[in-house]
């Protein structure tokens, strides 16, 4: 958000907006008539355009239509008097981004521009995601699906995507829940809208409410301006609640109400904000235990778990291992600017299929990336992969895990083993486990291992 066009026949309004916006570091261009604005819009692509509804030559609606025709990516905000709000609402239905009512304060203008910045960043992110999906045409819309289990899941997910029902993705860490969430969004009627992800385990408890619902200026210490929350940013799209069971119990009633009523107030605000959002949730916890231990409200879970989808671990879909490995070979070769994709030798394939992959697809990807980065021969054999797992193949200092052991205890043992290896650091431990650092920190918090 760098360039802004201000269209108003009132010199005081133009000067006020110019001074306010330039203080924030924006480049501001002024136009006193609608026709001049249209000429400027054809010559230059503006990030944001403020236009008065009533101009001496043409209407603000005509400016809106002309500017959007010249550059569909420009965001247009309508300036209107209090008695003309209906016209501003009409303009928003025709594609305006927002409106501001005269007389307005500098804070109101700065808040609107910040909202526009967030919208632009969101649009750029979704454009990138759509481009990534288009690169994978021929792989079932970016999904690797050789096993019958995943093929069946994709068929189900495609049908589920056509509804607006909330979805809960169950499965171990690293199985690809976020990839499935993207798949559902991409095949839904919301595909043109935003896809917003929230890692609930990574947000400090004191900031969770603001992160979800936004806040007004002065709502708490440090709230220097208005902020849109994730629910508001996800309007007309999909909101992924990753590790939803980590949301503090005190906030869950407000979340439940927002889901049921499709409306909420920002922190420190009284205005109800209506949203149309589809929720996709995930959790690595055993849900029954989380509910029994009053970590997750049962009524909230039922609202989120309208359509449950279980994604099996990689060890239960052997047919996907080699296709996934070859996909990662190509991906990381290009990402690391290597010229030729290494050949995966039979010894490597045998090794990959024999491994249990406790970290699932994420761990497989990490192993292949390491092999690609270190490869110099153009061929990858078992030796290039086995070294990645040597720490876990040595004699364990703790008893081997039992199948009768609760899932939380299994996770605790794996994490402690990774952290207690020589020269262990958290980022290295995360890579050894086949998960990212953010997920490991969430697990440490969840299992009370942060001290």
Give a brief outline of the structure.
46% of the residues lie in helices and 14% in strands. It has 451 residues and is an alpha/beta fold.
Polypeptide structure, described:
It is a single chain. The protein is α/β, with parallel strands linked by helices and 451 residues long. Helices cover 46% and strands 14% of the residues. It contains 20 helices and 14 strands. Strands 2-1-3-4-5 form a 5-stranded parallel beta sheet, sandwiched between helices. It has a 5-stranded parallel beta sheet with strand order 7-8-11-6-12. Strands 9-10 form a two-stranded antiparallel ribbon. The radius of gyration is 26 Å and the shape is globular.
Strand content: 5-15%
Structural class: alpha/beta
Helical fraction equals: 40-55%
Order of strands, widest sheet: 2-1-3-4-5
At the fourth CATH level, what is the homologous superfamily of the largest domain? Answer: P-loop containing nucleotide triphosphate hydrolases
User: If helices are DSSP runs of H or I spanning 4 or more residues, what is the number of helices?
Assistant: 20
Round the mean pLDDT to the nearest integer and report it: 84
User: What's the N-to-C terminus distance?
Assistant: 42 Å
- How many strand units? 14
Low-confidence stretches: 133-141, 390-400
CATH topology of the largest domain: Rossmann fold
Oligomer: single chain
The largest sheet, given as strand count, sense and whether it forms a barrel, is:
5 strands, parallel
User: How many domain units?
Assistant: 3
What does the overall shape look like? Answer: globular
CATH class of the largest domain: Alpha Beta
Radius of gyration: 26 Å
Q: Give the name of the CATH architecture of the largest domain.
A: 3-Layer(aba) Sandwich
């Amino acid at each position: 958000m760098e360039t802004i066009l201000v269209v108003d026949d009132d010199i005081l309004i133009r000067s006020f907006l110019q001074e306010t916006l330039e203080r924030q570091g924006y480049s501001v261009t002024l136009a006193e008539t609608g026709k001049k604005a249209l000429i400027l819009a054809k010559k230059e692509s503006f990030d944001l355009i403020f236009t008065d509804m009533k101009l001496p030559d043409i209407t603000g609606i005509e400016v809106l239509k002309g500017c959007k025709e010249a550059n569909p990516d420009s965001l247009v905000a309508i300036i209107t008097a209090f008695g003309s709000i209906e016209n501003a609402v009409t303009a928003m239905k025709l594609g305006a981004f927002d409106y501001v009512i005269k007389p307005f304060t500098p804070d109101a203008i700065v808040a609107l521009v910040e909202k526009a910045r967030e919208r632009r960043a969101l649009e750029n992110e979704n454009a990138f995601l759509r481009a990534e999906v288009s690169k994978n045409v021929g792989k079932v819309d970016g999904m690797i699906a050789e096993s019958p289990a995943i093929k069946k899941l994709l068929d189900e997910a495609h049908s589920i995507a056509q509804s607006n029902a909330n979805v809960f993705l169950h499965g171990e860490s690293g199985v690809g829940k976020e990839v499935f969430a993207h798949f559902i969004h991409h095949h839904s009627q919301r595909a043109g809208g935003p896809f917003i992800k929230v890692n609930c385990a990574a947000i400090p408890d004191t900031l969770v409410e603001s992160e979800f619902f936004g806040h007004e200026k002065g709502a708490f210490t440090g709230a220097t301006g208005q902020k849109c929350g994730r629910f508001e940013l996800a309007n007309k799209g999909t909101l992924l609640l990753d590790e939803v069971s980590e949301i503090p119990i005190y906030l869950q009633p407000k979340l439940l109400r927002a889901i049921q009523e499709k409306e909420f107030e920002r922190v420190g605000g009284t205005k109800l904000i209506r949203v149309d959002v589809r929720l996709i949730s995930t959790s690595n916890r055993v849900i029954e235990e989380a509910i029994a231990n009053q970590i997750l409200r049962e009524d909230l879970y039922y609202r989120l778990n309208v359509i449950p989808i279980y994604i099996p671990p990689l060890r239960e879909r052997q047919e996907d291992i080699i296709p996934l490995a070859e996909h990662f070979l190509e991906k990381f070769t290009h990402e690391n600017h290597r010229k030729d994709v290494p050949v995966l030798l039979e010894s490597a394939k045998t090794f990959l299929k024999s491994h249990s992959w406790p970290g699932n697809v994420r761990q497989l990807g990490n192993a292949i990336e390491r092999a690609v980065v270190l490869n110099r021969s153009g061929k990858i054999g078992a030796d290039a992969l086995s070294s990645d797992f040597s720490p876990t193949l040595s004699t364990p200092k703790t008893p081997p895990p039992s199948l009768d052991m609760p899932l939380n205890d299994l996770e605790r043992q794996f994490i402690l083993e990774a952290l207690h290896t020589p020269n262990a650091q958290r980022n290295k431990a995360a890579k050894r486990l086949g998960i990212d650092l953010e997920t490991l920190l969430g697990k440490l918090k969840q299992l009370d291992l942060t001290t």
